[in-house]
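Worked example 3. Consider a protein that binds 5-amino-5-deoxy-1-O-phosphono-D-mannitol.
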Amino acid sequence: MCGIVGYVGKRQAAPILLEGLHRLEYRGYDSAGIAIGGKTRLQIAKRKGRVRELDELRPLRFKGTFGIAHTRWATHGEPSDRNAHPHCDASGRYAVVHNGIVENAAALKAQLVEHGCVFTSDTDTEVFAHLIALMDDGSPLEAVVGAVLRRIVGAYGLAVADAHRPGTLVVARNGSPVVLGIGDSEMFVASDPSALVRHTTSVVHLNDGEIAAVRADGYETRTLDGAPTSSTPSTIAWKDEAFDKGTFDHYMRKEIAEQPDAVRRTLSGRLDTRFQTAHLGGVTMAARDLLDVRRVKILGCGTARIAGAVGADLIEQLARIPADAEAASEFRYRNAVIERDTLYIAVSQSGETFDTIAAVQEVKRKGGRVMGVVNAAGSTIARECGQGIYLHAGPEVSVVSTKTFTCTAVAFTLLAIHLGRLRDLSVANGARLIGALQELPDRIAAILEREPEIASLAKLVAPAEHAFFIGRAAGHAVAAEGALKLKEISYLHAEAYPAAELKHGPLALISPQTPTIVILPRDSLFSKNISTIEEIKARGGPVIAITHPGDAPTKFDGAIEVPALEPELDPLLLNIPMQLLAYHVALLRGTNIDQPRNLAKSVTVE
Ligand code: M6R
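Given these inputs, the predicted complex is written out as structure tokens:
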């Protein structure tokens, strides 16, 4: 959601923090701010809008070697100058940047107002600054902040600077990530390692309930009660260059183009051609325990959940284990029955999605077994799960997920083969699928070459205000992903339905102005899908088919023909043209593709 960055060391802090904010802008982009520690006071600039609008306030003129900065995605209070972080106490001595939500903010604010505090924003974050000012008894800053945090109910990733304690930053974490970056006589803090990789690859992920005092020469971590905790630095594998847009106009387009290589990395070292199965080193459950699994429940949000639905279908088809995917946000609150012989799988690109973390914790609390399918190494979900499959897709910067959908589907194909080969999936079928996976990156590359055709189809969709996406079985999950992509970046209202559901209501909305995109593999349901298409055509609705080459009894208004590979991989391949379709529709509609309105990468609040 929001992004935090902090620096303490010998260099000027402002350029480092501003560069970090630009890097973090994909986490939230409705306002930004910076506080730099000078000799006696903090210098603060903050503003509604993008980081480049903050640049216009010339924060680079601020001199000082420690500071904190923030890019915001509004929760409490509209995006505005006054609601932008950092927030300060009345004297301007303490500055706070915060990700998360303070649930008891109203009660705390009422108490603080009684003490004479005057609030200057509508945010929940401001209570931190006033509380710190009120409770500062001269103890080390980390002790003061620890005492304040014991009064907070809610989630936070927090960084605090005090003008009177130069050279120290205090950061804390409860439900919203905070990472320390270890430099050479300098330290960095951030809510996301992407802001650090330019400076260091040695990082420490704070745990929930930890607070850290960070100085140029090192850091100490403690519990909120002051008990020391131990932390082991880890190394970030992602390279700084991976965060650049390169020659592309948008990160989304770059990440679509990266898919062949990303898939190669997901597959790397995992195809076992001796036993025609998948080798998954991160899955630590023994084969006999995996044999006891009677059900698989996949949990995630947004695209991660939809990729999980593709995974559920694969697991059911290849391993014959009943499987389904559910929104983590629903699962965590519905007092779900946790079964001993169910395998729970949390899916997340960022590994920091609040609802998915909460679902994992709910499963663990009730004694269930959970593994992760995660892109960001060392992230909260990866660490909570302790076992699973890393995607190795590389950083995904665009708010819209593209390559991680594909890599998640690939990871589930590997898992389904692994589970299947422990059961009834034959050597021949294992070999067929392993062979297909080896061909997959080149097939994806071939589809990407069809971009001009897809761009031309986008002209049919772009003028519409509504669109339907339909498919059957795993094709329905692909339709759901296509609709999500389109609505996210083009603001065109798109709905996905299982194809046969159309006649149970949505058909009433079909008109010449409402295109339907049909996921139409040449499988056993092909003729059923054709019947649905006829029903749409009979009502004047334009139909675009994402299909395989071959004769079709119906004339489509547009079609992209994707060469078939193996039926199990159809969903994955049929999804690729829809990413490009959404991209080109958004281009035609002139929207902000990488940072769509109201959204943020990595939703770290409820
Ligand atoms: O980081 P996660 O995979 O857990 O994120 C889950 C969703 O927030 C994410 O997939 C979202 O739906 C994307 N904007 C989709 O493009």
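Take a moment to read the result before moving on. The pocket of 5-amino-5-deoxy-1-O-phosphono-D-mannitol is lined by residues 301-304, 348-350, 353, 356, 399-401, 484, 488, 602-603 (CB under 6 Å). The longest helix spans residues 427-448.
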